[in-house]
């Protein structure tokens, strides 16, 4: 499933596709959305926002189209006169100045008033979104002290969208590696320096993944990995998907474990469970 940085980059592309004029055509597959199609003609897209892994297309009349890709949803960008080459099922389409953004295969799509969007059951339980909201290091650090999060293992906590929205499996492994923390560590067990290191990497690694299209590794380590013949899937990460390969920092083989029924990669030397 795409993580927050991938959804934010998709939102940027949709925004570029749909800004610049009024909507010329709108189509929805779901019966509850079909009445909105005609009334969107002439309305403009104000911006395309995200909350975690949810996409929010905000219109000038204060309506908001919510969508969540889940496992199979995907947005495609194309000329309105050219159908994308796909066998997926079309769910929604918006057209502006002959440019179309089409949503395929997603099943979680709905229209909301901007004032009531906070009541959406998914949005309502989300923590702050590092990429789409003004989230400071101090904000994330304060959340680690909350009773709901303070005594939970980091391996599970970093996937909890109620803690910080948009973090997913590869970001979890990368953040913990750069913070030099084992997934069983709890915020309760950490000293101030460890907390600061953790929250700094939650913010920094997420922003790097967004800016560099999913690359979270350092430039020096990427260069070394390429020289050793690693594939992009391997060199783009510091630890994720690198099972058996040497740790960039200490050369210990990277291990793959399961935490919360999902794979997690770590260096057993750099991330010792104290």
From TrEMBL:
Keyword field contains Transmembrane helix: no
Which SUPFAM superfamilies does the record cross-reference, listed alphabetically? Glucocorticoid receptor-like (DNA-binding domain) (SSF57716), N-terminal domain of MutM-like DNA repair proteins (SSF81624), S13-like H2TH domain (SSF46946)
Q: Which cofactor does it need?
A: Zn(2+)
Q: Which segments constitute the FPG-type domain?
A: 238-272
EC number of this enzyme: 4.2.99.18
Among the Pfam families in the record, one is: zf-FPG_IleRS
Q: Which UniProt keywords apply?
A: DNA damage, DNA repair, DNA-binding, Endonuclease, Glycosidase, Hydrolase, Lyase, Metal-binding, Multifunctional enzyme, Nuclease, Zinc, Zinc-finger
What range(s) does the Formamidopyrimidine-DNA glycosylase catalytic domain occupy?
Answer: 2-118
What enzyme class is recorded for this protein? lyase
What InterPro entries does this protein map onto? FPG_cat, FPG_N, H2TH_FPG, Ribosomal_uS13-like_H2TH, Znf_DNA_glyclase/AP_lyase, Znf_FPG/IleRS
Write out the GO MF terms.
Answer: class I DNA-(apurinic or apyrimidinic site) endonuclease activity
Q: Which family does it belong to?
A: Belongs to the FPG family.
Q: What is this protein called?
A: DNA-(apurinic or apyrimidinic site) lyase
